[in-house]
């Protein structure tokens, strides 16, 4: 049966409008069957990363290294095996439509759920900037995990050296971004050695906000002691001569 010209045009338009972050790779490998339980572990992504996916991965890695430099941590290297591991989980989350962490603790893991439209495209830095804001809740004098800061500490963990990133679109304009880290961070009792305070290149500023210039100190004038007047000589009172009364003088009574 031949398709009409109208149907052919409709199929062509829908193909052009398909999501850039396809749920299947070049060889047909996807995220595996959907399983909504904590024990589910999908096979690593075996497809081909699209140009758009690679672009987001680069954005994520560069943004990580931007913040790691502030905390005296070495830059992270990209790892294709970690990318595929993260991509498989991103596909899984996009299918079930919610955030859920892997049960496996082989690698460190951060997860971000965002929204996109024509005016707000998917950018890798959005997830990383959101995680870094947790610095405002972190106490650098403590040596244990602190509530609401696990993404920040994993980002800047000094012992971590490699990063993998996965990205997948879900329903209703959502997308899921997954990052995995090797070696994993957030190790009990190792926080003081792996999470440094911000150095002079950063600080507790809101991501993407320009830092306020430091006020120039106004020199304080040194107080000059008032001159002490020289002591004035005390004038000597003039001496008054006492009259001498001679013997036998008159004047007796």
Automatic annotation (TrEMBL):
Segments forming domain SCP = 55-189
Alphabetically list the UniProt keywords.
Answer: Signal
Signal peptide bounds: 1-22
Q: What is this protein called?
A: Antigen 5 family member
Give a single Pfam family match: CAP
Top-rank taxon: Eukaryota
Question: Looking at the record, which segments are called Disordered?
Answer: 189-253
- The annotated regions of Pro residues compositional bias extend over 210-240
User: Native species of this protein?
Assistant: Rhipicephalus zambeziensis
Checking InterPro entries in the record gives: CAP_dom, CAP_sf, CRISP-related, SCP_GAPR1-like
Q: Which CDD domains does this chain map to?
A: CAP_GAPR1-like
Which PANTHER family does this chain map to? Answer: CYSTEINE-RICH SECRETORY PROTEIN-RELATED
């Amino acid at each position: 049966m031949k398709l009409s010209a109208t149907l052919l045009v409709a199929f062509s338009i829908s193909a052009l409008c398909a999501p850039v972050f396809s749920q299947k790779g070049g060889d047909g490998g996807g995220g595996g069957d959907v399983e909504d339980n904590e024990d589910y572990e999908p096979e690593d992504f075996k497809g081909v990363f699209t140009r758009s996916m690679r672009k987001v991965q680069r954005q994520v890695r560069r943004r990580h290294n931007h913040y790691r430099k502030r905390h005296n941590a070495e830059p992270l290297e990209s790892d294709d095996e970690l990318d595929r591991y993260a991509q498989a989980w991103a596909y899984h989350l996009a299918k079930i439509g919610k955030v859920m962490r892997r049960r496996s603790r082989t690698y460190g893991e951060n997860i971000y759920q965002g929204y996109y439209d024509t005016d707000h495209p998917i950018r890798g830095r959005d997830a990383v900037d959101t995680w870094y804001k947790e610095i405002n809740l972190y106490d650098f004098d403590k040596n244990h995990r602190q509530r609401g800061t696990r993404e920040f500490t994993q980002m800047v963990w000094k012992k971590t050296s490699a990063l993998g990133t996965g990205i997948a679109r879900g329903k209703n304009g959502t997308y899921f971004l997954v990052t995995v880290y090797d070696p994993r961070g957030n190790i009990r009792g190792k926080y003081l050695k792996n999470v440094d305070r911000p150095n002079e290149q950063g600080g507790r500023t809101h991501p993407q906000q320009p830092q306020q210039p430091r006020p120039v100190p106004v020199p304080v004038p040194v107080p000059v002691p008032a001159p002490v007047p020289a002591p004035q000589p005390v004038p000597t009172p003039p001496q008054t001569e006492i009259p001498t009364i001679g013997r036998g003088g008159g004047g007796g009574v």
